[in-house]
Design brief:
This protein is of the alpha/beta class and 428 residues long. The chain has 16 helices and 9 strands. It starts with 21 loop residues before the first strand and ends with a helix.
């Protein structure tokens, strides 16, 4: 794994710099010209490792699966005039893996002309970046984005420099005659300490490899136009709120709901409180608000932008009886389709409880669907209900979002369920 701090369950503390390796998982037996899924792990572009995601089950669905490590946090996103080409090395590492796949995957039974780049959360934001990057053109033929609204996939150079200036000062290198040499001479542990544990780094735009902000590239059609499957989980923020509950040892108090909304939404807090009155659980109500504002509405924005230029289908993973974290006390309200909830259905993840029989059946359906998309660019088939393209033609009727559960897959009442018009009006 690549260098990263402690403090996140999907990673491990590490100071390793010799870390750019990848894993290839193939179905049993001899195969040729299988679709290839290149997995970019999540972790806020701060944490994580490819090894965590055992891909035997996904590969058994009929694909060659490649996972990778890439530089994270400080080693990828520190930006300074003395550090040429810095500020987004994670995407460079991922491109190197994609080039390796193009050159070598046929030896593993994969088709270099049927490569799907797939990522979740931080990895999903990276996929957004590759869609917008001329440097990534031709390295993949399809894309799957899970839990990553593309509007948040890049930042400005000024933002990157401001954050990095703070880190460089904490590291004791701000007054060095050669800042780059000072940073390189630091023990990795000290650099990680200076960078901290709670950042959300992104590559900055205005470079040859990312000329436009990602959201602008998608809106204007200046991106790599491949078929895209983009989606979000119905209850994304449940995981974040329940994580705080586990950390503090108690559920969120009802008296904390209004202050939390005021802190998060400022001048719009009164409108948010009217739209989302406090329910039986303060934590669950706050999670619903933040899911809708931070994940659900922006993901539909992403799908609408993409659909104007390329084949786009959107999904919502909405299964309510999902595995909880293994060996962890049960929370005060169900995690449901929280952030990461779909991952134990696609990968063998010891982080979560083992799948039940019903959950395993859903896993097989998801894997078959993802594999069909990787093979053809169309997820339809396998006896599932039709999944139309999302079309942004001036009417909500075209905004088809497929609800994925253990029952029959069908169109979600997505815009109404997540108060889409409320948030788009509030945010503009």
């Amino acid at each position: 794994m690549c260098a990263q701090p402690a403090g996140y369950p999907i990673g491990k503390p590490s100071t390793a710099e010799d870390c750019l390796n990848l894993n290839v998982t193939t179905p049993t037996g001899k195969h040729d010209e299988l679709p290839v899924i290149v997995w970019v792990h999540g972790g806020s572009l701060m944490y994580g490792m490819g090894d965590l995601y055992r891909a035997d089950r996904l590969a058994a669905g009929g694909a060659v699966v490649v996972s990778m490590n890439y530089r994270l946090g400080a080693t990828s996103f520190l930006t300074h005039p003395s550090l040429p080409d810095s500020g987004g090395l994670a995407l460079d590492d991922q491109r190197a893996a994609l080039r390796w796949v193009r050159q070598n995957i046929a030896a593993f039974g994969g088709d270099p002309g049927k490569v799907t780049i797939m990522g979740q959360s931080g990895g999903g934001f990276a996929v957004c970046g590759h869609l917008a990057s001329p440097a990534s053109a031709g390295l993949f033929q399809r894309a799957i984005i899970q839990s990553a609204p593309c509007a948040d996939a890049s930042r400005t150079k000024a933002e990157a420099l401001a954050e990095s200036s703070e880190v460089i000062k904490k590291a004791g290198c701000a007054d060095a005659s050669d800042v780059a040499s000072c940073l390189r001479d630091l023990p990795m542990a000290k650099l990680l300490e200076a960078y901290g544990t709670q950042r959300e780094p992104r590559p900055y735009s205005g470079t040859p490899s990312l000329p436009l902000p990602v959201d602008q590239a998608l809106r204007t059609g200046r991106f790599n136009r491949v078929p895209v499957l983009v989606g979000v989980n119905h209850d994304e923020e449940n995981g974040m709120i329940l994580g705080l509950e586990l950390a503090t040892g108690k559920p969120m108090a009802a008296t904390d709901y209004r202050p939390a909304i005021t802190e998060a939404y400022g001048k719009n807090a009164a409108a948010v409180l009217r739209r989302y009155p406090l329910g039986n659980s303060a934590g669950r109500t706050l999670a619903t608000v933040k899911t809708d504002s931070t994940w659900s509405a922006p993901t539909l924005d992403t799908a609408r932008a993409l659909s104007r230029w390329t084949s786009t289908r959107m999904f919502e993973f909405a299964e309510q009886r999902t595995p909880w974290y293994a060996g962890t006390p049960k929370p005060s309200f169900p995690a449901a389709a929280q952030h990461m909830a779909e991952l134990p259905y696609l990968f063998d993840l010891t982080l979560f409880e083992k799948l039940s029989l019903q959950q395993s059946t859903l896993a097989n359906r998801l894997i078959a669907t993802w594999t069909r998309f990787a093979r053809t660019g169309d997820p339809n088939g396998g006896g599932e209900q039709p999944w139309p393209l999302l079309r942004d033609n001036g009417s909500q009727a075209g905004w088809h979002v497929q609800s994925l559960t253990s029952g029959t897959w069908k169109r979600a009442d997505y815009a109404q369920d997540h108060h889409y018009r409320f948030w788009t009006t509030l945010n503009h």
